[in-house]
Specification:
This protein is an all-alpha fold. Helix content is 75%, strand content 0%.
């Protein structure tokens, strides 16, 4: 067993993010696959849907929740190893940096549909 516990907040937020993940996945699947049943899914149809803030909000929400839930779960798995407090801080910091970079990249991919240009030029 690890000498370091992950704490209440990461544990609780993992459960909250799982519920949000379930909501966003169901909403995404409903919008993309069942709301327009029979219509082919093309780049143009997805681009038109992403012009609406509701659809884009679901995709942005899904992006953020998936990244948080996945990296928080990975952090929990890594912390099962016997790590020193310094190593725990390094793992946590590295995962936060990876998460922020991933979300920025994802926003950059989705933003041309809303604003006509990338949000952040990489």
């Amino acid at each position: 067993m690890s000498r370091y516990r992950s704490g209440l907040w990461p544990w609780l937020l993992q459960r909250v993010s799982a519920l949000l993940l379930l909501f966003f996945i169901v909403a995404h699947l409903w919008i993309e696959h069942f709301m327009h049943l029979g219509a082919p899914i093309t780049f143009h149809s997805v681009a038109v849907r992403l012009l609406h803030w509701t659809y884009a909000g679901i995709d942005y929400g899904l992006l953020v929740v998936v990244v948080y839930h996945g990296l928080n779960g990975l952090r929990s798995i890594i912390l099962d190893a016997a790590l020193t407090p310094r190593q725990v801080r390094a793992v946590t910091g590295g995962l936060w940096i990876l998460g922020v970079v991933t979300v920025i990249f994802g926003i950059n991919v989705l933003s041309p549909f809303l604003w006509g240009r990338p949000w952040f030029i990489v």
